[in-house]
Amino acid sequence: MNMSFNLNTLLRDNIKNLVPYSSARDEFKGEASVLLDANENAFGSPLAQHYNRYPDPLQHQVKHKLSTIKGVPVENIFLGNGSDEAIDILYRAFCRPQVDNVILVPPTYGMYEVSANINDVPVRKVNLTADYELDMENIAEAIDINTKMIFICSPNNPTGNSINRKDIETILTYFPGIVVIDEAYINYSRHKSFTQELAEYPNLVILQTLSKAWGLAALRLGMAFASKEIIDIFNKIKPPYNINQATQELVLEALNGVDIVNEWIKEAVAERDKLASHLEKFEQVYHITPSDANFILVKLQEPRALYTYLVSKGIIVRDRSKVELCEGCLRITVGTPEENKNLIAALQQFYN
């Protein structure tokens, strides 16, 4: 337990005093037969399925379904328009512009810094070590009285490795601010999620998404798991109807497909290992970072020229060769067996 953590002292004064928007749908419980509160078009919508009514502002049905799957109480779940909405809310809740700061550990997911810049919050970067682990000593030195959050992506993007769990637990125990663990790729990992540790760490916020293993990237549904007190803050700040009705319906339907998603995960992991094995045979491939995600980071000869060549063949990977600590690297998502074969064939053509 982090005894030095005090949520009330971290929260911005304007958020403490914020009176959130409240709709009539928030103010009654149960089912209504006549809805005359929200100035909706009572006659319907020009679609086969009516979308003339506003959606459930707190997405109760989706949260109950996710609660069963994730083993996390409904009161500890926030749903956002992608994880990006949750990231933005964290900045708006806890960071005073130009006063407070956050710590990022590059190379990592770029939206943490973009969102900081949008919210005018200074960023302190403490690079990962050469083997892509946390630099604990320099993180400790970077923390000051105005450091409100530390973002840790695990499994990390773009490197693919899981961050040492004991290091994360140390930060959770001793850092008096918010620790955000982004688990977008946790379904592909050999390591367990931090979601079962919520009761132990009041300063813990976990981000997950339905965009990766669940294959719902186009629906833009992100999840945050945290204490009830932090989730209440998220709900206080979010727009009243941040998850549209069509997304809620489609996600509810998709959440019945746990078995097929688990099969896809197994196949993706098997393909990841097979792809890495094929790539290791190229003498122009210098290093492949062991991955717990659905992608691999590959250090190789002529990364930019190879990237351009692959584009000419209609194969799109991510060029990370100019990112610090990822010099000379391409990030390659694991595709279907056929897509992976096409990639290997293109590499053979390029290097031969």
Automatic annotation (TrEMBL):
SUPFAM superfamilies: PLP-dependent transferases (SSF53383). PROSITE patterns: AA_TRANSFER_CLASS_2. One of its GO terms (molecular function) is histidinol-phosphate transaminase activity. InterPro entries: Aminotrans_II_pyridoxalP_BS (IPR001917), Aminotransferase_I/II_large (IPR004839), HisP_aminotrans (IPR005861), PyrdxlP-dep_Trfase (IPR015424), PyrdxlP-dep_Trfase_major (IPR015421), PyrdxlP-dep_Trfase_small (IPR015422). This is Histidinol-phosphate aminotransferase. It is an enzyme of class 2 (transferase). Pathway: Lipid metabolism; Amino-acid biosynthesis; L-histidine biosynthesis; L-histidine from 5-phospho-alpha-D-ribose 1-diphosphate: step 7/9. Homodimer. The modification N6-(pyridoxal phosphate)lysine is found at K212. Keywords: Amino-acid biosynthesis, Aminotransferase, Histidine biosynthesis, Pyridoxal phosphate, Transferase. It catalyses: L-histidinol phosphate + 2-oxoglutarate = 3-(imidazol-4-yl)-2-oxopropyl phosphate + L-glutamate. Residues 49-347 form the Aminotransferase class I/classII large domain. It comes from the Bacteria. Its cofactor is pyridoxal 5'-phosphate. GO terms for biological process: L-histidine biosynthetic process. Belongs to the class-II pyridoxal-phosphate-dependent aminotransferase family. Histidinol-phosphate aminotransferase subfamily. Its EC number is 2.6.1.9.
